[in-house]
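Technical note accompanying the year-one report. For the benefit of new consortium partners, we illustrate the data format agreed upon in the data management plan: each record pairs a sequence with a structure-token string. No post-processing was applied to the example shown here.
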Amino acid sequence: MAEHFAEIKPIPYQAISGGGVATAMKSTTRSKAVEVLAPNILRTQRLVLRPLRASDRDQFLHMVDVSRAQLERWVRPHREGESDVALFERQLKMCEEGDRRGLAFRRVAMLDDGRLAGCFNLNSISRGIICEADFTWWMSSELTGAGLATEAAEAMIEFALLAHPNGLGLHRIQAAIHPSNARSIKMASKLRLRKQDGATVSILMDEQWEAHELYSRTITG
């Protein structure tokens, strides 16, 4: 999905007081539970999901470099003519802006050894008659195949659907996936993101508009 901010005023995130575990959420991934740490940092069995930091610059650039082919095929995070450094600076600003305004919840996944593993983003958060967000993600090509992306994505979705103030209090998460992206489609199934029959969105890919199918997970009540 395109990364942008909707012009609405949502309920801002409420930082959880103290430094301990605020709540634990059951997960269907390899992680047995998802811990929500202050302030809005998520912990799974193998990962910490936290905001991007200026000190992450070198690791972020390395992730982009080793994942370039995958990114150019499926994600295309760069704007036209944008360098990797400029991409990092923009992503850092978007993370800070999203948290400040409550319009996005953008996190990087970090392994216990300190390496960055990927980026997981809840964008265009809206709260009103419909409480929803667009979900995008990408994983370092060096770390695919171990279930880490599914583990991180499940934590993000569980947090998004957890009632406010411990979570984002959203009711619906949607992701746009290209019909030939078999790996992401398989991951969507594991995340219980269901394909919406006939629902598509066009995304500019390599100077061509390509239809992506919409997958969503919704809660009621």
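Partners are asked to follow this layout when depositing records. Residues 21-171 form a domain with the Aminopeptidase fold (CATH 3.40.630.30).
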